[in-house]
Amino acid sequence: MAFTKQTARKSTGKAAPRKQPVTKVARESAPATGGVKKPYRYRPGTVALRKIRRYQNSMELLIHKLIFQRRVREIAQDFKTDLRLQSLAVMALQARARPIFEGTNLCAIHAKRVTIMPKAL
């Protein structure tokens, strides 16, 4: 016979009261409690930490191409107006910016911060 684990229960020393059998009429009039199950909710911060771990281990581009391209064009406007950029040049800039942001993120983690600061760049 298989070993079954027994759990300790608090005893008051009295015999447990017997449950009254539910009559058929009472069962039919009672509302059905079956239905949509409530989704499981993680504790606050658990999902955020999971996302942080996923993004730190991933090799995908964290800044989308169009957003990065818009930012590069905005900065380039300060130096010269009507400047045209090749898409390969923008991709090369984004590829070179990634290690800089990774190092900055490591500095922020070391300083027990979540936000990267301009002084860490």
Describe this structure in words.
The protein is mostly helical and 121 residues long. The protein has a domain at 46-120: Orthogonal Bundle (Histone, subunit A). It has four helices and no strands. It has helices at 24-29, 46-57, 65-79, 87-110. The longest helix is centred in the last third of the chain and has 24 residues, at 87-110. It is elongated and about 90 Å long. It starts with 23 loop residues before the first helix and ends in an 11-residue tail after the last helix. The model has no long low-confidence stretch (mean pLDDT 83).
* Secondary-structure-derived class: mainly alpha
Indicate the low-confidence ranges by residue numbers.
none
Helix tally? 4
- Report, as a whole number of angstroms, the end-to-end distance: 66 Å
Give the name of the CATH superfamily of the domain at 46-120.
Histone, subunit A
Global morphology: elongated
Residues in helix, %: 40-55%
CATH architecture of the domain at 46-120: Orthogonal Bundle
Tell me, what is the CATH class of the domain at 46-120? Mainly Alpha
CATH topology of the domain at 46-120, what is it called?
Histone, subunit A
Could you report the average pLDDT, rounded to the nearest whole number? 83
Radius of gyration over all CA atoms, rounded? 31 Å
Question: The biggest beta sheet, please?
Answer: none
Q: So what's the oligomer here?
A: single chain
SSE series:
HHHH
- Report the sheet-strand fraction: under 5%
Tally the beta strands: 0
